[in-house]
Amino acid sequence: DAKTTQPPSMDCAEGRAANLPCNHSTISGNEYVYWYRQIHSQGPQYIIHGLKNNETNEMASLIITEDRKSSTLILPHATLRDTAVYYCIVRVDNQGGKLIFGQGTELSVKP
Amino acid sequence: KAGVTQTPRYLIKTRGQQVTLSCSPISGHRSVSWYQQTPGQGLQFLFEYFSETQRNKGNFPGRFSGRQFSNSRSEMNVSTLELGDSALYLCASSSTSTSGGGRGTQYFGPGTRLTVL
Lengths: 111, 117
Fold this sequence. Notes:
Radius of gyration of chain B: 14 Å
Largest sheet of chain B: 7 strands, mixed
Oligomer: heterodimer
Mean pLDDT of chain A: 92
Distance between the termini of chain B: 37 Å
Order of helices and strands of chain B: EEEEEEEEEEE
Structural class of chain A: mainly beta
Low-confidence stretches of chain A: none
Number of helices of chain A: 0
Radius of gyration of chain A: 13 Å
Helix content of chain A: under 10%
Strand order of the largest sheet of chain A: 1-9-8-3-4
Largest sheet of chain A: 5 strands, mixed
Mean pLDDT of chain B: 92
């Protein structure tokens, strides 16, 4: 079973920031939080990952709470092309390459 | 750098047949993982190969198998196809064995859409 909980869907206005929450209350100290997104019927696209510090790259920012029990993915200026299913995944390091995907959040960016 | 490539992109088979799907990882990546995606079950891990050895396996029947070659390319095979095997099959590559420390971010290919009639 996935170790994360995400809202099933969210809407965001084009040009505004999209803030996607994720709950991972049972995360272990050495587990990372990964975010991927999947545009319809394409392969998932890696976005960002982090352990405990906030992270930023050219796609998004990841804010992890101090207790590490939740995180937020921020798309600073959402565009229509950001419409996708976003998956928050806790990396089970001792399970090798296994990523456990939950149901994700379906983000709809509207004009 | 070229991304992960998968062939074929689309495939139609009938029940009872077998199928082989191919995945070429990003150059320099030695780990290849396979996933199955269906509307009912979502994305599920099938297995991972690293340096030609299976390192991890998901909860799928033995009809699902795979292998990895010395150039890191990987194939997965499904024998005795069932209607329920219709799915998008995805492979992902990463630069190290993905155990330990959060290393080895996985990058996915576009997938092979398998339809079983």
